[in-house]
């Protein structure tokens, strides 16, 4: 195991992912975790991440007392990156100062000593790296040597081979450091002697074993399928482990996209052979949403209805199988459970990062179900990888995210008014199909149409019209937390707008949303 101690760098998760891409299992925990949390994981290598802090500020995070001694006496290799290097220097008796020149961005460094972390490189070799620091190592602790310097003369890499402590002032994990991956690979395999053996197939087998150990042979498990990648992969995995003692429920709340229910159910049944009950609750949802225009109110109502349907599903199941289901499957991912060191000034504490959106809008309190979260150590792209092994069809794995409240947050105002939902479905389908036809679906994080509660004047076939306006939104993003609007070619937009106005009755104007997040959000409500 390679353990990453997170000190708040925006790249920390990237380090974890890069190392996993070398088929090495790596985990990330808070940099201030108690020593027992570190030792209980028994890592062979510990990487101290970068972070926005200065080691001089009073509240700068640091590793637990006793860490250095534990690492030394257990033959553990320690690599500090950026702030991590400065922590090592400071805690082992060296000195860190505010640099004379701060170094941000691309920078050239030169190897001064050919050994340890740069075993393959010769003295004088140069490479371009990505720097991002204000402080620098001014005096190294006893036993440490400078291995590379930046073109401005700042320390870029250090090591104490005997004690197995290493440090890089730059970020090898980002693509702007073109040789960074090679350095990490060399360090982990050749210096630390780590074995590559972490494969998604093994992860799957291991998870299946865990599920079978957790769920007794006569226990039953339920799962709410949203049609999204995470819950589908989680359910497919659990189904592989326990077969038809898994019972899934898919709710058609009347707020789904064009033919979504049919398309999703077909994949569940035909491709994945999942035991799924489809509950048609269109009337139940829409009657509760009638006249509601407040976005938060819509979300609350939808969340509550989901709970009551899910509750009824569990009770019905109990009657059918004569036993209460004992477990609930959730598609929680690793980024949701990582406890990280928040950057200063964000007001966040060292608490779990909890997703603010829940697909099923919360769970009934009295269900007393124990959770099975088979994806909780995986990142999104790894879930897709696992999905491929489980034979979840590729187009399904690549679907754009879709919010739990569905089209309710894309029809602004009262969703039951006129034929807003129907119009939106048609417009959305044309937009998405055009995106797919143009071969750009996979370059976009999320694309969708929004129904606006306004009408505008137009002219169609010599007739003056007073019809609806729809907006098109497409964004690129890494995780949905921030987003940029997607640049379509003009010809593409022109074709889509024409197609929409020509084939969707009731629409005479198409506009495009060109705001990033922030200041907007991805959804309009
Ligand atoms: P926003 O609009 O907050 O969206 O920028 C960020 C991401 O979250 C999705 N989203 C939701 N997902 N329930 C969900 O399951 C919700 O209530 C919800 N609201 C937004 C949104 O589609 C985007 O991917």
From TrEMBL:
Q: Which residues bind ATP?
A: 226-232
The metabolic or biological pathway listed in the UniProt record of this protein is:
Purine metabolism; GMP biosynthesis; GMP from XMP (L-Gln route): step 1/1
Give residue ranges for domain GMPS ATP-PPase.
198-399
Pfam families per the UniProt record, alphabetical = GATase, GMP_synt_C
Q: Name one GO molecular function term.
A: GMP synthase activity
> What top-tier enzyme class does this entry carry?
ligase
GO CC terms: cytosol
Specify whether ATP-binding is a keyword of the entry. yes
- The answer on whether this UniProt entry bears the keyword Aminoacyl-tRNA synthetase reads no
EC number assigned by the record: 6.3.5.2
Q: Which domain of life is it from?
A: Eukaryota
From the UniProt record, list the reaction(s) this protein catalyses.
XMP + L-glutamine + ATP + H2O = GMP + L-glutamate + AMP + diphosphate + 2 H(+)
Q: Which keywords does UniProt give here? A: ATP-binding, Glutamine amidotransferase, GMP biosynthesis, Ligase, Nucleotide-binding, Purine biosynthesis
What InterPro entries is this protein classified in? Class_I_gatase-like, GATASE, GMP_synth_C, GMP_synth_GATase, GMP_synthase, GMPS_ATP_PPase_dom, Rossmann-like_a/b/a_fold
Q: What does this protein do?
A: Catalyzes the conversion of xanthine monophosphate (XMP) to GMP in the presence of glutamine and ATP through an adenyl-XMP intermediate.
Instruction: Specify the protein name.
Output: GMP synthase [glutamine-hydrolyzing]
Q: Which organism is it from?
A: Corchorus capsularis
